[in-house]
Amino acid sequence: MATPSMNVGSKTREVVRKVRGQPTSDGAGVQLTRVIGTGALDSFDPFLLLDEFRSDNPNDYLAGFPNHPHRGFETVTYMLAGRMRHGDNQGNEGLLGPGSVQWMTAGRGIVHSEFPEQQEGLMWGLQLWVNLPRKDKMTAPRYQDIQGDRIPEVELGAGARARVLVGTLNGVAGPVTDVATEPVYFDLRLDAGARYDVQLPEGHNVFAYVYLGDAKIGAAGTLIARGELALTSAGARLPVVAGAEGARLIVVGGRPLKEPVARYGPFVMNTEQEIRQAFADYQA
Ligand code: FE
């Protein structure tokens, strides 16, 4: 909980840093843009990685992400267009349609595959990695697969609306529940020139990532272009004003864990010893 103070509810967030995503490839040669989890921005507690994958060329992604393990954190896949076919070593299978989200708590470990598929020529999505606190790293794996029609869309006034994946916006709660870092994940769509002040938990680490158009963000109205991420200071609200083309962006926040991070590829633990154990368990 936030410490009560005279300022609760009144502080406006500022953009403290702007980061542009970097082209990279992962899995079996899938082309994507990595925004968090690069040399420029290693992580933003509790967020470990953010990828945008967008392509109208199946050769960019058809080979997908064959079987690979995860332990110690959560992967969040949000499909803007196209589908993601998913399967794991426990026999779980799923097909995420356009507009759907999968919140997967890897916990003590899963081995899974992810294969993107286009729809009407386009495959477009975002994958976020969210860390787990020490006490939850070895929890049982859990899936929250939410199809698009279960994600509420909220009208936010003139020219502004949002889909609420997790957390509460304008009194509307998203369908993803019981996540350790108490995250918010809002997908905002603003018409040209529209303004909306996003209400946020004051102490959360919050970023905004613009994936279409551009927007002026924060108290000083910092211009954030398509493909750029804004890290924000603490505060209870984040003003967003869309540019001349309108804007689509995600606003995502989480409670920082402030724990040591030992990270090696698909394993994220607290100590090197736990990473060695993760490798040993995976090989067994
Ligand atoms: Fe994965």
Blueprint (SSEs and pairs):
Elements: E1 15-20, E2 22-26, E3 30-36, E4 47-55, E5 65-70, E6 73-81, E7 83-88, E8 93-96, E9 101-105, E10 110-117, E11 123-131, E12 142-146, E13 153-155, E14 160-166, E15 168-169, E16 172-173, E17 184-190, E18 195-199, E19 205-217, E20 222-225, E21 228-232, E22 237-254, E23 262-264, E24 267-269, H1 272-283
Antiparallel strand pairs: 1-21, 2-3, 3-4, 4-11, 5-10, 6-9, 6-11, 7-8, 7-10, 9-12, 13-14, 14-17, 15-16, 17-22, 18-22, 19-20, 19-21, 19-22, 23-24
This protein binds fe (iii) ion (FE).
Structural overview:
With 284 residues, the chain is mainly beta. It is built from one helix and 24 strands. It has one helix spanning 272-283, and strands spanning 15-20, 22-26, 30-36, 47-55, 65-70, 73-81, 83-88, 93-96, 101-105, 110-117, 123-131, 142-146, 153-155, 160-166, 168-169, 172-173, 184-190, 195-199, 205-217, 222-225, 228-232, 237-254, 262-264, 267-269. Strands 1, 13, 14, 17, 18, 19, 20, 21 and 22 form a nine-stranded antiparallel β-sheet that branches. Strands 2-3-4-11-6-9-12 form a seven-stranded antiparallel β-sheet, with no helix packed on it. The chain has a four-stranded antiparallel β-sheet with strand order 5-10-7-8, with no helix packed on it. The longest helix is centred in the last third of the chain and has 12 residues, at 272-283. The protein is globular. The termini are far apart. Bound molecules: fe (iii) ion (FE). Fe (iii) ion (FE) binds at residues 65, 68, 70, 75, 112, 114.
